[in-house]
Amino acid sequence: MELISFFDYRKKSTVSKAKKGDKEAFLALIDENRLNIYRVARGILKDTVDIEDAIQNTIIKSFQKINSLKQDEYFRTWLIKILINECTQILRKGKRVTYLSENSDTEIYNDSYENIDLTKAINSLSEELRVTTVLFYFEDMSTKDIAKLLKISDGTVRSRLTRARTKLREIMGEVEI
């Protein structure tokens, strides 16, 4: 119990330092959350360039607005919320752009734990189902935290997860018994 409290205190202390303008503390927080940021962005966006843009914009905005973070212990949730907003903005812009040539067959990821079929199945989900699924399964966020983050009810989160699981079973070809 004491060990957990020490780590919580250390993290809070790092966030406090970052809020006071300590760039090293901010970079340490970003480094600590980089895999989470990447997985969420990859779960929402399909294009590598879009993923990189979303992450870069998230880091810039979070650095500029870190003083608006009210509770230090929610840094990760706050950062992911900024990321989701950035991803949503990129998706909206992408719908208006027409590409002359599109290489959708070439998806390049360097994630050694990736299941390509599952990734494609998740990417085929609607945005609301995809975001909820990524946050719950890849970021280990509780339904309550997802509800707060997305500003929806806990029941809506559970409903989206149920619908996402059903669609993923259909896509992956699994038969329910």
Key words describing this protein structure:
2 domains; disordered N terminus; RNA_pol_sigma-70_dom; Arc Repressor Mutant, subunit A; globular; 8 helices; 177 residues; mainly alpha; 0% strand; Rna Polymerase Sigma Factor, Chain: A
Q: What does this protein look like?
A:
The model is unreliable at 1-7 and 97-113 (pLDDT under 50). This protein has helices spanning 2-19, 23-44, 48-65, 75-96, 116-123, 127-138, 143-150, 154-172. It has 8 helices and no strands. The protein folds into 2 domains: 1-114, RNA polymerase sigma factor, region 2, helix turn helix motif (Rna Polymerase Sigma Factor, Chain: A), CATH 1.10.1740.10; 115-177, Orthogonal Bundle (Arc Repressor Mutant, subunit A). The chain has 177 residues and is an all-alpha fold. It is 72% helix and 0% strand. It is globular and about 50 Å long.
Rounded Rg: 18 Å
CATH-defined fold name of the largest domain: Rna Polymerase Sigma Factor, Chain: A
- Helix count? 8
Query: Quaternary status of these chains?
Result: single chain
**CATH homologous superfamily heading of the largest domain:** RNA polymerase sigma factor, region 2, helix turn helix motif
Spans where pLDDT lies below 50 across 5 or more residues: 1-7, 97-113
Classify the secondary structure makeup into a structural class. mainly alpha
Q: Biggest sheet, in brief?
A: none
Which architecture of the largest domain would the CATH scheme give at its second level?
A: Orthogonal Bundle
Strand residue content: under 5%
Question: How many DSSP E strands?
Answer: 0
